[in-house]
Design a protein that fits this description.
The complex is a heterodimer of chains A (200) and B (242).
Chain A: H1 23-31, H2 35-57, H3 60-77, H4 88-108, H5 113-117, H6 131-134, H7 137-147, H8 151-161, H9 167-174, H10 178-196
Helix pairs in contact in A: 1-2, 2-3, 2-4, 3-4, 7-10, 8-9, 8-10, 9-10
Chain B: H1 10-14, H2 20-32, H3 34-52, H4 61-70, H5 84-108, H6 115-137, E1 142-149, E2 152-159, E3 164-170, E4 179-187, E5 190-197, E6 205-210, E7 218-225, E8 238-241
């Protein structure tokens, strides 16, 4: 790994305890009704939750609304989290992304998002962030991993994950066959997984 | 048309890029396929890293709002650990069985004369649901996509090993007048009938088909007179090569 690499939980610990609890431990405590643990978990993950939702939805007010719903859902359903099956941050961010997508799909019933946004003007959705965000290590690491993909893999993954498009929409946007988009999404995620050293 | 192996849907699933009905079908498959479940767990962790990199501070007021709200929200009771997939499986069954449940409620209200008939319908639906689940969960399940026509989409999920498949459509209008939709398997010897169906009031079709699809080169849908036809009498409204 690169020198000076900060872990994803390098956020300062407001509690000041000698051994800050991991997100996994916090979420397990939340499942037992520990509101203090929830407040601490909020400080760790709310920026990630809001960030991923805002990337998909774009609208700040809507993003805040959905982020708030997700975080309350984390509290409500914390009893379902099983630390043996994955990390707390993964569990939370999968939920956040799904909720953002649900909002996109329900909106699409009434209007066509692509008409509003323009068909190809968000072909690199990952780059639509502030400079402050771009300097973060996590962002640079993901940027590097995305740039190592083939063009089609990268576009498919970004349009689907950050752009919130179905693979059918991705196929249309990229003018590529459906089957190709499906396999590129999978190949792209395999390469990202390996490049980022992610474990389930 | 494409006939991809169902296992390749892991990527699209992990980034929430499947249509709702495909997502539900694929979640049935994941329950039975450890390799897909493992890959999705890894892809979810990968996607979460991508999500974490999108970090952006929320409005400061959100914290107080969330903390105030959880103070009024009761937490779910702890349950024996089940997979999310299993939870979603319930949603899928609810979707197919919801009409059956409504029918049952009416029956219990005392319409004894037609209870037997209703029960039969419920049994049929439950059997069909079970077969759909079996086909989708089969190790060799394959999806054949039909090109979308006027907002109607359709696909066949089939298992060669089981010798059966499920034709699924969404957004399909009810067949006009006293006509029906007829599905055709088209092989070297021309089209052979693969069953009649109509869309429900929500434009959905779940039609189980049996037979050897190995010899089938294309699949088509036509509109036929009530009772169906031995050979197509009109141009197909949908067709896909296998």
């Amino acid at each position: 790994m690169a020198s000076g690499a900060r872990s994803l939980r390098s956020v300062p610990d407001p509690g000041g305890g000698p051994e800050p609890r991991s997100e996994d431990e916090l979420l397990v405590a939340v499942a037992r009704g520990d509101q203090q643990a929830f407040a601490e978990l909020y400080d760790r993950v709310s920026g990630q939750v809001y960030g991923v939702i805002r990337r998909v939805l774009r609208d700040p007010a809507q993003s805040e609304e959905v982020a708030q719903e997700v975080l309350v859902e984390v509290w409500r359903t914390a009893t379902r989290f099983d630390p043996d099956r994955g990390k707390a941050t993964t569990w939370i961010l999968v939920m956040a992304h799904r909720r953002a997508i649900d909002r996109v799909r329900s909106e699409q019933a009434s209007r066509d998002r692509d008409e509003r946004v323009g068909v190809r003007d968000h072909i690199r959705p990952f780059d639509e962030v502030s400079e402050e965000v771009e300097t973060r290590f996590e962002h640079q690491q993901v940027r590097a991993a995305l740039d190592a993909l083939t063009e089609l893999q990268r576009e498919a993954v970004e349009l689907a994950y950050y752009g919130g498009h179905t693979y059918r929409e991705v196929a249309e946007l990229l003018d590529a066959p459906l089957g190709t988009v499906k396999t590129r999404l999978r190949d792209g995620l395999i390469r990202l997984r390996d490049a980022m050293g992610v474990h389930a | 048309m494409t006939s991809p192996d169902i296992h390749t849907l892991t990527g699209a699933y992990a980034v929430d890029a499947l249509e709702e009905d495909e997502r539900q079908l694929f979640e049935l498959h994941i329950r039975e396929c450890d390799a897909c479940a493992q890959e999705i767990a890894e892809f979810h962790a990968t996607a979460a890293t991508m999500g974490a990199a999108a970090h952006e501070p929320p409005p400061a007021s959100m914290k107080d709002a969330v903390l105030a709200e959880i103070d009024t929200v009761r937490q779910e009771r702890p349950v024996a650990k089940v997979t999310d997939i299993a939870t979603h499986r319930d949603a899928w069954y609810q979707r197919l069985l919801a009409p059956a449940a409504a029918v049952l409620a009416i029956a219990v209200l005392g319409m004894t004369a037609i209870i037997a008939n209703m029960n039969e319908r419920i049994d049929t639906m439950e059997q069909q649901t079970g077969r759909v689940a079996d086909v989708v969960a089969a190790a060799d399940a394959t999806i054949i996509e039909m090109p979308e026509v006027d907002g109607a989409s359709a696909r066949i999920v089939y298992s060669a090993a089981r010798g059966e498949g499920v034709f699924l459509a969404d957004g399909l209008p009810a067949a006009p007048g006293d006509k029906v939709y007829e599905l055709w398997f088209i092989g070297e010897e021309g089209p052979s009938p693969a069953g009649l169906f109509d869309a429900d009031d929500r434009g959905r079709v779940t039609h189980v088909v049996t037979g050897d699809l190995a010899q089938v080169q294309a699949i088509g849908v036509t509109i036929e007179p009530a009772g169906g036809s031995p050979q197509p009498t009109s141009d197909p409204i949908m067709v896909a090569e296998v």
